[in-house]
Amino acid sequence: MSYKQQEEIKNVIAEEGANLTAKKLKIIIEKIFSIEVSKSTAHRLMQKLGFSYITPRPVHNKQDKNKQEEFKKKS
Known about the structure:
Blueprint: H1 3-16, H2 22-33, H3 39-48, H4 65-74
C-alpha cells in the first residue's frame, strides 16, 4: 500500500474507534481500494499505523470472586 493509502486507512480507523476489528478493516480496505488482503495483513497494518489490537476476554483477569459474592450479599 502506498503512503497515501495508509494515511486514508489511518483516518478510517480513527473514525471507527474502538469497534474496529482486523476483519472489519480487511473488508474496508477491499471496498475502498479494491485490494484483497488477509486478516493478518490488516492486523499488521493496524499495528504499523500505531493502533493496538485488544482481545475481549470473558472474565476480567483481576476479578476477585470473594468481593463479587460480598457485593451480591449486600445488594
